[in-house]
Amino acid sequence: MLAGDRSMAVSYQLDLYADGDRTVGSGSVDADFIGLAEDLEGGDAQLTLEDGTVMALTLETVEDDGAEFQIRPE
């Protein structure tokens, strides 16, 4: 995951669903955000999945041990 100016390994859960012609989704990541939560909440991030797919995200709720996100529409 790339968030702010930091790149970090994360575990993630991702829920995808169709909304008309587009795919939307949300999920969560488990990571060490200690000291970063306030700076990252509401910000943009990128998540690279195991298969190499890169998804643009908005971090919604960020806590010291993880975050919830929404996928940004393309």
Q: Can you offer a commentary on this structure?
A:
The protein is mainly β. The chain has one domain (2-71). 5% of the residues lie in helices and 58% in strands. It is built from one helix and seven strands; from the N terminus they run E-E-E-E-H-E-E-E. A seven-stranded antiparallel beta sheet has the order 2-1-5-6-7-4-3. A hairpin with a 2-residue loop joins strand 3 and strand 4. The radius of gyration is 12 Å and the shape is globular. The model has no long low-confidence stretch (mean pLDDT 91).
Provide a compact summary of the structure.
With 74 residues, this protein is mainly β. Helix content is 5%, strand content 58%. The protein has one domain.
Gross geometry: globular
How many independent structural domains? 1
Q: What does the average pLDDT come to? A: 91
Number of helices, where a helix is a run of at least 4 consecutive DSSP H or I residues: 1
